[in-house]
Specification:
By secondary structure, the protein is mainly α. 63% of the residues lie in helices and 3% in strands. It has two domains: 101 residues, Rna Polymerase Sigma Factor, Chain: A; 67 residues, Orthogonal Bundle (Arc Repressor Mutant, subunit A), CATH 1.10.10. Strand 1 and strand 2 form a beta hairpin. It is globular, with a radius of gyration of 18 Å.
Length: 188
């Protein structure tokens, strides 16, 4: 029997770990895609785990809300905590506005949020024009949340080439955003 989100949350609140797994399978892909916009790829899985641990602990408190929105709120707070713990507060404005921790509002000026998003848009230029191999690989993997195998099939290149392009795109974006660890020329 397929349960809707409200039924799954009620089951999780009763301690049903199978229901939690179902929620994870249903919501983790889109949540991961949103988190990839603000977190280093290596940290997304950890934040997902923290998010669904918080879902497990707080399921009884989810009343009268859209479950997906409730999970996003938890994920957003977990991402903010993760960034703060790692001293990466400059990335906080990239997460949608709103409460970051219980009772605390993000202090960033709306102009800072627009500037941060503008910087991200400008950084995408480092990947080349729309449709170029690296930009297309980035779009498919990090915007559409497709797997390496799916991207390889869609672009007609081997999986190793997709991985290489994705790695190079991440380095270029980090450099363009001034996040360290790479230079704009890819480390050369």
């Amino acid at each position: 029997m397929v349960m809707d989100d409200d039924e799954l949350i009620a089951a999780v609140a009763r301690g049903d770990d199978t229901a939690l797994r179902q929620l994870f399978l249903r919501h983790a892909p889109w949540l991961a895609a949103r988190l990839r916009a603000v977190l280093p790829a290596a940290d997304v899985e950890d934040v997902l785990q923290e998010t669904f641990l918080a879902v497990w602990r707080g399921a009884a408190g989810c009343r009268g809300e859209a479950v997906g929105g409730w999970i996003w709120g938890i994920g957003r707070r977990q991402a903010a905590l993760w960034l703060r713990r790692r001293g990466r507060v400059e990335l906080l404005p990239l997460i949608d506005g709103g409460a970051w921790t219980e009772g605390e509002e993000l202090s960033a000026d709306p102009a800072d949020l627009v500037a941060a998003r503008s910087e991200l848009a400008d950084a995408l230029g480092a990947l080349g024009p729309a449709g170029s191999p690296q930009r297309e690989t980035w779009r498919l993997m990090y915007v559409e949340d497709r797997t390496v195998a799916e991207v390889a099939e869609l672009t007609g290149v081997p999986a190793g080439t997709v991985k290489s392009r994705a790695h190079h795109a991440r380095r270029l974006l980090r450099a363009a955003l001034g996040l360290g660890g790479a230079t704009a020329d890819g480390g050369r």
